[in-house]
Amino acid sequence: MGSADTIEDIEIRRKRLVYRAWHRGTREMDLILGSFADKNVPAFSPAELDEFENLLQLQDPDLYNWITGTEPVPANINSNLFEKLKAHKV
Q1: Per-residue confidence (pLDDT) for residue 5, from 0 to 100
Q2: Of the four listed, 21, 35, 67, 90, which is most buried by Cβ atoms within 10 Å?
């Protein structure tokens, strides 16, 4: 997505990301990521949308372990947005 995106393009992208967050494959991650997306994606900047989209491409077991603190979060994943996700309460 580039700077030439229209508001309509960004809104469609937001809706797609929320949908993807709710349809992960494991119920736990559907609830965590879906409720997080409902609450936060509408206000995300284009850069935050990019970052969230990248998180959605990761495997559920890895994300779940990082979010719950079972495993340390890799440095390339840990960010302000990921910290916000970890702090999110369903």
Answers
A1: 73
A2: 21
